[in-house]
Design goal:
Blueprint (H helix, E strand, L loop, with lengths): L1 H34 L5 H22 L10 H22 L5 H8 L2 H9 L9 H18 L10 H24 L5 H28 L8 H26 L1 H6 L3 H13 L6 H18 L2 H18 L1
Helix pairs in contact: 1-4, 1-9, 1-11, 2-3, 2-8, 2-9, 3-7, 3-8, 4-11, 5-7, 6-12, 8-9
């Protein structure tokens, strides 16, 4: 039974870490809006990645976790192209055209699409209950963001850009799965953000430098630092640990929480409406998320141990 307790405690820490990564990514939709008051999309993303990358590179170097194998450099580059480059290209410009909650629900399609794509690369099997959980959770997401007439008012271009971010996130998860057996999440995130900053640098200087160079108040850096430290550093590290521990599909299922959490934060921070239907939707999302994570083999082993203990006791 002690083994089960250790495993349960380990999984609890993993799930808690992934949950907080979703909290920080949900808040990023709010921080984006705050940052856009002072900066353009390219300036916001470039500064976000630059600050995060420099902080993490220094930490990785000081802790001796910056040893990269030459044959993995190409894989790091591919991962960085997917995320942060393509992901933030879609998300940063998409956020200029659609609301925070609408953007977050598009991101919530990641766990629905991920199993269809990753099945070609990995043998991560989902049970019928897991699939039912995905569907139920996604229905809960719809309850959170849809109006009574089942209509979402959004820019088609903004929607397409956000779906670019969705497919980039799936590509990144596939590349990440190949890196996590060899490197600590701190190392992976540090390199991906530094590479991402270099990829975004030309776009920053061409598109947004003229607005950035005119000056800005010190308070304008607060949302940038929030995005850098929490959304681009801590959240990615916690997510990478999750992928390593429970796999791509199950880790991505937690993204169903993003629109729910974003709605809550938007209610308190942006004074957006929060109805009874949204509260009910949150409950449905949580129930679906539980089913999507249900591992019947674990419960079967636990039941077998209980039966064995009772038989031997008698």
């Amino acid at each position: 039974m002690s083994f089960m307790k250790v495993e349960t405690k380990k999984l609890s820490l993993v799930y808690t870490g992934i949950f907080f990564s979703m909290v920080f990514w949900s808040l990023s939709f709010i921080w984006y809006k705050d940052a856009y008051i002072f900066f353009g999309p390219m300036a916001t993303v470039f500064l976000r990645l630059l600050f995060s990358g420099l902080i993490l590179i220094i930490i990785a170097w000081l802790t001796g976790k910056l040893n990269i194998k030459k044959n993995h450099i190409k894989l790091f580059l591919i991962a960085a192209i997917f995320e942060p480059f393509l992901y933030f290209m879609g998300e940063s410009f998409g956020m200029k055209l659609i609301s925070s909650v609408t953007a977050s629900v598009i991101i919530a399609t990641i766990p629905v699409l991920t199993p269809m794509i990753t099945s070609f690369f990995y043998e991560e099997k989902l049970t019928a209950i897991n699939i039912s959980g995905i569907i139920i959770s996604f229905l809960g997401v719809a309850m959170v963001i849809l109006k009574k007439d089942l209509h979402i008012s959004a820019s088609p271009t903004g929607v397409l850009l956000m779906f670019l971010a969705v497919f980039a996130a799936i590509g990144y998860a596939i590349a990440l799965k190949k890196l996590t057996p060899h490197y600590e999440p701190l190392t992976i995130v540090a390199l991906q953000n530094i590479i991402g900053a270099f990829l975004f640098a030309p776009f920053f200087f061409i598109i947004d430098w003229h607005t950035f160079s005119t000056g800005f108040p010190v308070k304008a850096l607060i949302p940038i630092l929030n995005l850098s430290i929490f959304a681009s550093s801590i959240a990615f590290i916690l997510y990478a640990y999750g992928v390593k521990a429970i796999g791509v599909n199950k880790a991505n299922m937690f993204t169903n929480l993003i629109p729910v959490l974003t709605s809550i934060f938007a209610f308190y921070l942006l004074n957006e409406q929060f109805t009874f239907v949204k509260v009910l939707g949150i409950f449905v999302v949580v129930c679906g998320l539980f089913l999507s994570q249900l591992n019947l083999s674990v419960y079967q082993r636990l039941l077998n141990r209980i039966v064995w203990w009772r038989n031997n006791k008698n």
